[in-house]
Amino acid sequence: MTYQPPVRDHMFLLRDVLNIEQYGNLPAFADASIDVVEQIVEGAAQFTGEVLAPLNSIGDKTGCKLDPVTNTVTTPPGFKEAYRALCEGGWTGLGSDPAYGGQGLPHVVNLSFSEMSSSANMAFSMYPGLAHGAYSAIHTGGTDDQKQTYLPKMITGEWTGTMNLTEPHCGTDLGLLRTKAVPNGDGSYKITGQKIWISAGEHDMSDNIVHLVLARIEGAPAGVKGISLFIVPKFFPNADGSVGARNEGAKCVGLEEKMGIHGNATCVMQYDDAEGYLIGEENSGLKLMFVMMNEARLGVGLQGVAQAEAANQAAVAFAKDRLQGRSLTGPKNAEGPADPIIVHPDVRRLLLENKAIIEGGRAFLFWTALHGDLAHSHPDEAVRTKADDYMGLLTPVLKGYLTDRGFQVCSNAVQVHGGSGFTEHFPVSQYLRDCRIALIYEGTNGVQALDLVGRKLAAKGGRGVMTFFQEIDQFVGENDGDAELKPFVDALAATKAQLQDGTMWLMQNGLQNPDNAGAASTDYMHLFGLTGLAYMWVLMVKAANAKIAEGSTDPFFTTKVATARYFIERVLPDAAAHLAKLKTGSATLMALPAEAF
Amino acid sequence: MTYQPPVRDHMFLLRDVLNIEQYGNLPAFADASIDVVEQIVEGAAQFTGEVLAPLNSIGDKTGCKLDPVTNTVTTPPGFKEAYRALCEGGWTGLGSDPAYGGQGLPHVVNLSFSEMSSSANMAFSMYPGLAHGAYSAIHTGGTDDQKQTYLPKMITGEWTGTMNLTEPHCGTDLGLLRTKAVPNGDGSYKITGQKIWISAGEHDMSDNIVHLVLARIEGAPAGVKGISLFIVPKFFPNADGSVGARNEGAKCVGLEEKMGIHGNATCVMQYDDAEGYLIGEENSGLKLMFVMMNEARLGVGLQGVAQAEAANQAAVAFAKDRLQGRSLTGPKNAEGPADPIIVHPDVRRLLLENKAIIEGGRAFLFWTALHGDLAHSHPDEAVRTKADDYMGLLTPVLKGYLTDRGFQVCSNAVQVHGGSGFTEHFPVSQYLRDCRIALIYEGTNGVQALDLVGRKLAAKGGRGVMTFFQEIDQFVGENDGDAELKPFVDALAATKAQLQDGTMWLMQNGLQNPDNAGAASTDYMHLFGLTGLAYMWVLMVKAANAKIAEGSTDPFFTTKVATARYFIERVLPDAAAHLAKLKTGSATLMALPAEAF
């Protein structure tokens, strides 16, 4: 079973649920009529399905190879050619700034391509993915000169980029970082230190690699207040845009052996007096790194859904194909030796859970990405503010909730395969193994949950979450009279009430004792994710009902409604459990001394 | 972090919770005073910790190699020597029949060794594990001659054994199997067919391998009613007990590439006119295979707990060692650069969830295994009947629930490690990958759930489940006045009421429409598992409280009580969610046609 990009579902979201045509007055959307968008989505499907997907298993089985003498990395067979095709197709600059050669399309359209790339080949998609993060940091914080030097090359894909945060003794706690930067006197710095887990840190697909490296300028304050961000190119750029001498001090000295994403080079990067250039202000590197980080977090949430989609497609194909046992209510394939296993209710439970999470999660991602576009360029300040609040609030939810659930979906997909799912002859093992990293990198899901309850919830006096509640209340009020929609609206209202209850509990108890906030954080994040998906499912049912009311007999729409019903019956009951758990507070968690574990 | 066998917890269960000394009147227990048992448990800890655990990662990284010319398999370095030590230590015959050279110890004592072996090295432990299953089938169904020929050699470990069920087109649905048996006229048969996923099917550690193979005798009825079981030895046994000529028709022609358990040879076995001997009656092979299968299912449930234990030990060690960030309530390691991550409530949540599942699950396994001993040899028929009912009822619960939860525990353990957990430099990736098969083999967890609701629940008019409810009711009644125990007893009573509610729903709705039973099955199995663990936790608290009341200040006992509190606060709320889900019935699950997935 090869991955089939879900064009129909993407267009349903863009056209029918989000109705992106209504934003034609925004610059990014002006050139993106729905017909143009459909062409892009179809082109993305063709490219990712035909070029990237066939390389996924090869990447897993071959992995990357480091030559310890030259410090160069060879990517799996076919990756280099696929990367060239990616650049030639213009896919690297889809959402980038037209001022530097990008196509300036809405983020929400770019997201469609990103999801498909990640489903087709997660390890491959991380090379351009990291490059885009580095692009964003330079775009936000770079000088004009830096922008002119780096952005056009990164948009064409000729140069890629990386994020260098982690060191052996510090990951989450960046305040501990030791990599140092010594001024050369000419505005440049000598960077020295070791960075680990640097995705796409070295490879053979692009002419240059632009490392963005967090380091501490000699004499800077300790902790996070003394961290600066540096551009450390693998090759020095010439004035004419060509690639000059090798920045000898920057090299890859090791590759990690990992559970998954073998096709992506996870590098140990050694910087020994490597030449680097400050980007942004001294000692405010972390702020700029968070530009990349927030983008990366949404991208990781997307990976959760993307791996889930690919894994579930494989599971559905297997469940229709594998003949084993008979339906409990009598043969459904009487002429065959057995029924396909999709007749069994418990197999359907796994597949419908997957479908409900994937499609709800995808809608939540697209809906949020659209807010990213609105935050960026909507003419109405109130809309921009609300959208920006949502982006801050929802980023940790999307990252944490969707990757937790995405991994479960992949595990369900393995389960549908039975013994075949544990072998490497079927693609699901790889999806499960690849997906596992998404719960960890760019801040573990526990860190996301803490970011949510400790920072995002309280930001601006809780304005974001209150706006979110108001939006749902308003939607519920406006749609309460719609009899077809009522069961779904009621479920949304009930879940939102649970989330509000949990929010109140946090406000009352988290301030008193911050351990209460930490203790509640993951359950709260899941409760938030469930509420978000409940909202998305009602929006999708409403859009589907409208089509049905217009006379459509397309089973796509009735299937949406049935899947929403599954979500309410079989996924939402977890909300009450999360609420009950989070309200138990921190006393039991904190009672035991470390030795007792 | 190397695995440390949990001797203390095993002895707490055997001595304080189950009080196995009370069964001194039973033959298996007569020679197993608690002091002897303690020596065995300590010996098991030493052997598994020192001999098996160091080979676990080697097995994962090296795997098994098949020589396609000789059809022989080389196991990972060290496995052969470890196997010899296993045999020399007498570990292969711990629970086996003294009539054939076994030590005849209680199953519940053998379980202690099995758990430790599986934690230390799951892939290795499957070689003797499968052999014991084959031993049990021959012990139950073999002729005297067959028993005399095979059992002594299997007990010493000189010969191992396998189970051959699955064929490429049939796994769960054994009625489809095609491997055929043609009588030779001398009582033996020629066996022809291909079997896949045969764990330990070929290896270099024992002198002989005794394959138990399901096949259809020429002319036998179609479906499960025409399946017979055959002994197909790799080498023909000589009359003097030595190994004779090679059974040329039986060979390994392939090894599976798998997500985990690389150290175990998962073989494609090709039988071409291999000589085999009927065991048991013609056409009743499945019944005998279920002797092995039920034993194997308990063993797989145990693997869930065993991998969870090993993974969690690694997570605890990492959480105490890794310095990152500060406690939300102020530094706990002020002289260090950061606090150990075990100060963070969400890290503790992961570790306590693991602890609550592992220790509760272990107790449930030991408690059930003890019923296995009682069913076998208690002088009171009523006790035997009840114990036998429990074994039937609880086997699918232990297999399905404990492996589902065991995998979650392993995933939690990866999560505690952050990025390190995704690399292969730390042991947790292997535990997660190895553990994943436990949800699948010996009947997927979906098949377990269906066995529970479709067969075991209704067996003998529901006698087993009703006895289980009565036992809990009686315990609740007897302990209701114990103020210390009351919160735990109340939680048990409430969970049991939910399970009873779910059982009633199933009885009313499952008969009406079997799809309702299938649709409810997995949630019901989890609700059952939660109830079982709730009961175990109350029993453990009661035993711990007794020690505390006697004046013990050992933190082991207060930790038990605190972990039980975590279980009630943070694990049991899922019970209500499972009940709500299972009561939604099958309508939504069955609504969509296969094409809609």
From TrEMBL, chains A, B:
Residues 80-158 form the Acyl-CoA dehydrogenase/oxidase N-terminal domain. Its cofactor is FAD. Residues 283-452 form the Acyl-CoA dehydrogenase/oxidase C-terminal domain. Residues 468-593 form the Acetyl-CoA dehydrogenase-like C-terminal domain. Keywords: FAD, Flavoprotein, Oxidoreductase. Residues 163-273 form the Acyl-CoA oxidase/dehydrogenase middle domain. Belongs to the acyl-CoA dehydrogenase family. This is Acyl-CoA dehydrogenase C-terminal domain-containing protein. The lineage of its organism: Bacteria, Pseudomonadati, Pseudomonadota, Alphaproteobacteria, Caulobacterales.
